[in-house]
Structure formats: C-alpha cells, structure tokens
Design goal:
The chain has 226 residues and is of the alpha/beta class. The protein has two domains: 89 residues, no CATH class; 102 residues, no CATH class. The chain has a four-stranded mixed beta sheet, covered by helices on one side. The two termini are 27 Å apart.
Length: 226
C-alpha cells in the first residue's frame, strides 16, 4: 500500500500505528449491504466505484496484501475471491479470513484466485492469453528437479517490459490459480521473441508439471526481465 507521509509539524507526537481490523468487523460491515452489492455485480455497472472501491480498503485494513475479484458465480449467487496478490506469506491469512466467513445469502467466498483455463486478459493495450504468450522449459545445471519456465511475449520491448511483466504474472495467477502460480514454478523468466528460443511447448502443459508429484511444493523466485 502507498501511504502519504505528513512532513509538516515534525515536532508533533508520533501517532500509534492503527491496529488491523478483525475479520468479524468486515463481515459485520458486508452483510447488511449484501443485496446492494450483489445488484452492482449483477448489473456490471460501476463495479469499481460501487463495490471494489468500498471493499478493497476494508480488506486492506485486515491485511495490506489482500486484494479481491468479484463476479457472478451463477444466476443467483455472487462470488467474492480474496487473493494475496502473489504474496505467499499471506496465503494462510487469506484462507483463515475466508474460513471465518458466515453464511451470507446470495454470496460465496473463495480463498485465492482459482485456475480458469481459457483466460484472456487485456491491460494497458496489451493482451495476455494462450494466443499471445508461449513458453518453454529450461534445464538448470546441477538442479534437475528445478522447474524453470520462460514466458515469451512477442510485443515485449524495453519501454513496456514493466507492463508486460505485470500482465504475465496476473495471467499466470488466473490461468494456473494463485497457489499453483506461486508454487509450481521455481524460476520464471519473461522475454521477447527470438530465433534462438527453442520451439514452444503446448501451453496447457503448464497446468500439469511432471516433476510436481516427486518434488512437492516448490518455491517461486521472481527474477528481473532479461
């Protein structure tokens, strides 16, 4: 989160850091607005203004890494997905928070972004999908069990690499699911197209990594673009 520091009046006593809100406070706030919130989601109108801009600050009072997505689960039920934006250390807090949710009519609550194959995202004029992204595995000398993946986006340049990097991570969170995205891949590189790259693997193969069952949970190390 970004905080604005009050630089004037430096001699004033320091204020205590606000204590995080308890999950029960969030649910007590959310429940009376359940119908109005569902109507916003159902209508697809001003969702940012009338839902996300209200819910996100409340979630981040509980944990600064919390984020959310919302949509209709079916005709009568809205779904709020609470994520940790890839911060592995906060996954357990997301799960505990969702486990604390009471039954609220017309809503279901999900911990962490779930896999959605066929995902296509567009952000800052860039499209991220199985049509625009390809990938290949690389061997890590001395570490045969390491899962090293290079994602290739044809439109990557020095000027837009920050935007491309963000889009790729967001795509993987949606395509693989947030937990899988953070634990299936040890090293992840993001590059532009090059004749020197090996032939790309079928993208669906990412959903099942052969080494996973033998390796157990892996770590994810996010490296700078090269």
């Amino acid at each position: 989160m970004n905080f604005i520091k009050r630089l004037f009046n430096k001699t004033s006593p320091a204020k205590e850091t606000p204590q995080p809100s308890a999950p029960v406070d969030f649910w007590s706030w959310f429940e009376p607005q359940r119908e109005a919130f569902q109507q916003v989601v159902r209508s697809h109108e001003k969702v940012d203004e009338n839902f996300l801009s209200l819910v996100m600050p409340k979630l981040r009072e509980i944990n600064e890494n919390f984020a959310c997505q919302v949509g209709m689960f079916n005709e009568n039920t809205a779904e709020l997905v609470v994520s940790a934006e890839g911060h592995i250390e906060s996954f357990v807090f997301v799960e505990e928070f969702i486990a604390s949710a009471p039954t609220i009519g017309g809503w279901i609550f999900t911990a962490l972004s779930q896999p959605v194959h066929g995902t296509s995202l567009e952000t800052r004029h860039h499209t991220f999908s199985t049509e625009t992204l390809s990938f290949f595995y690389e061997e890590e000398p001395g570490y045969p069990d390491e899962i090293v993946v290079t994602i290739v986006h044809d439109g990557l340049t020095e000027e837009n690499k920050g935007d491309i990097q963000q889009g790729v991570y967001l795509f993987l969170d949606n395509y693989l699911g947030e937990l899988n995205s953070a634990t299936l891949i040890d090293d992840l590189y993001i590059k532009g197209s090059s004749p020197s790259h090996p032939p790309p693997d079928p993208y669906d193969k990412t959903g099942r990594v052969p080494h996973l069952e033998a390796k157990g949970v892996c770590r994810k190390i996010q490296r700078p673009l090269v």
